Amino acid sequence: MSTLLDKIWASHVIxxxxxxxxxxxVDRHLIHEVSSPQAFSGLKDRGIKVKSPxxxxxxxxxxxxxxxxxxxxxxxxxxxxxxxxxQYTEDNNIKLFDLDHRNQxxxxxxxxxxxxxxxxxxxxxxxxxxxxxxxLGALAWGIGTSEVEHVLATQTIRQRKPKAMRVIFNGKMNSxxxxxxxxxxxxxxxxxxxxxxxxxxYAGEAIDAMSIEERLTICNLxxxxxxxxxxxxxDIKTIEYLYDREYSPKQKQWQQAIMYWQTLFSDSDAVFDxxxxxxxxxxxxxxTWGTTPQDVISITQTVPDSTLYxxxxxxxAEKALSYMxxxxxxxxxxxxxxxxxxGSCTNSRINDLRQAAKFIKGRxxxxxxxxxxxxxxxxxxxxxxxxxxxEIFLAxxxxxxxxxxxxxxxxxxxxxxxxxxxxxxxNRNFEGRQGPYARTHLASPIMAxxxxxxxxxxxxxxxxxx
Amino acid sequence: xxxTRTKIIGQAVPLLDKNIDTDVIIPQTELITVSKKGxxxxxxxxxxxxxxxxxxxxxxxxxxxYKSASIILAGENFGCGSSREHAVWALLDxxxxxxxxxxxGEIFYNNSYKNGLILIKCQERIINQIATLxxxxxxxxxxxTIDLEKSCIFLFLDHQFPFDMxxxxxxxxxxxxxxxxxxxxxxxxxESFQKVDRKKREWSYFSF
Lengths: 466, 208
Ligand code: SF4
What we know:
A: alpha/beta; 3 domains; 5-stranded parallel sheet; about 30% helix; B: Aconitase, domain 4; 4-stranded antiparallel sheet; 8 helices; about 35% helix
């Protein structure tokens, strides 16, 4: 009667400490230029090298330019961090997907598409959205720089086992409703603290029906629920997805792996510390109105009355309303927008771009809107170009960029200007996340595409696909 | 490395909003650095400064009587969001030694004690009470004492608020532990685990 969490955890415990912490083996350690260089310098001070460089992979993604024909120097503020990462990965024999590499892209987009993430593994990375990778049936979570240093030094992490939560999404999704809408809805229901202390296993008919890409979107926002971990049991789609990818196991090892992966599910009599059931047929396209992902409504709903905000927290609601310049009981529809960002590790994979392109095709972005598409990786970009999606975006007036985190975090020059409003397919609508005083509305690629055309917030269901 | 300590004494500043995320604690524009030092000036930058980096006098940390505060009283889920350890480095560099809140973002929680930043979980009701008692008369802020060994917050002589802290975390804060050094001592055990595991899950190790 074990949960999948129990099974993966148990298979990785090296040592149990008296205080309830376990020493856990790490199968893959992913690193990027913003959170990891400081950890290498700690290692250097100790006079030690990286323990398992072959299990460590580095990507340049957070602070890179996304402009066409970019070089490292196109984004001067990133040069020191990138050069530091390059030096350390070279000194330690770690594979680096640098700016010019054909596999470059956002770490959480690149890792699955290369077959680096396999079911039953433990994955860590100095980045909170590492939880995305749970979509492949792995236990993956974000860590801080001190922990990065620990993993580099020992290929292990000291961690307390989380509690187990299961979220069951029942039913079939309505049309124009996406994985993004489901997870935003869940966060709206449970709140940004609702998953704290838990590893969330997503299950149910709607999850079974989803592609791996959609599952990655669901798991991506687990941290926005307060849960460090989110994952799904692997199934036939997982196996098909991983088959013959660059780093996937091959031949005899592939066969052995499949045998092993088939044991990875929560037993039917497994007991969860918390269980939530969601009827997805009730979910409409979602959009956020405030400054945390829990501030979310259906496109047809109105912004809540601040006196009715969570636990009567009127003051906080008023702060969010004023930051976002929206009023209680107001419909968001018709609200003028300035930017549309299609990208980030949440929604920048090929299927996201296909969905958006369907809406864009033959139409024009409203003249006052600056709209950009930032594919999640070079592979996604290449695939999209093979399908001529870039032509559709460019013809409509979107910019077609090189892969990176871009406007999700505004570490490079892709920022939303102060007080401007942006429909963003990313995962955080925090104050200043997309740039100082930027106003972010989180939504799906379908909604983002529809809003780009309309020039204001709109219900995509009122616009037909071409 | 942190210093050994069992007690801190300082003034508290109330910053009671819920869900103060690490993007707010240190905005992305402030964290482009390979160093852990000097990040204090970017702490709460978007709240502390106006667009032109002039001090925003309305923000509570800029209020004269809170300038030397070293303890933050916060709302639930403090430090949620991004894993950036810069948030902890910025708080410490600014001079904050302790944050008291009903709950914390999990990654932030782990990052904190590893750097010697004390996080204390207390009920909201108690935090409000501390705020009323210790921060009400703005001209006359009172020191509060946090005693890690006794697991108790002391206000004057007659107010005591006990708190729970995981023994491991307390140990870490008091005894200047070096987790990496400890784990390196287990190297033999780590290697023998990996040897056995590799037989079971060869596909996970790139031996092809
Ligand atoms: S795209 Fe955004 S959320 Fe994803 S890794 Fe980059 S900065 Fe983080």
